[in-house]
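Field guide to reading this record: the first block holds the primary sequence, the second block holds the structure written as discrete tokens, and the final block holds curator observations. Each block starts with its own label. This record concerns Helix-turn-helix transcriptional regulator, catalogued under organism Bacillus infantis.

BLOCK 1 — SEQUENCE
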Amino acid sequence: MEFGERLRELRKEKRLTSKQFGEKFKLAESTISGYETGARKPDIELIKAFAKFFDVTIDYLLGESSDRKGNIVGSAFYDYDNITEEEKDYLDLQLEIFRKMKKKQ
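BLOCK 2 — STRUCTURE
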């Protein structure tokens, strides 16, 4: 499943119109439509925000995984008890980006 299809599916699961969803991110309805049809591509920061909003991994949102939550490595690599939520999100994003880059090599 492609990113646009996945985005539309997740939006509909939350029972949001394109307009309602766009308003949550200060985006026009036409922008959301462009993402869902594949005519436009969001930047990585917006992809991250969408994934967080839907509580799914970036891989799932991009259609590269069928596992919504992914394989959370968690405390095996990070001291999750002593870092902030923002730091956790940043580390998770960096790990996902690194894996995507390695996959393309």
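BLOCK 3 — OBSERVATIONS
The chain has a mean pLDDT of 85.
The helical segments are 3-13, 18-24, 29-37, 44-54, 58-61, 85-104.
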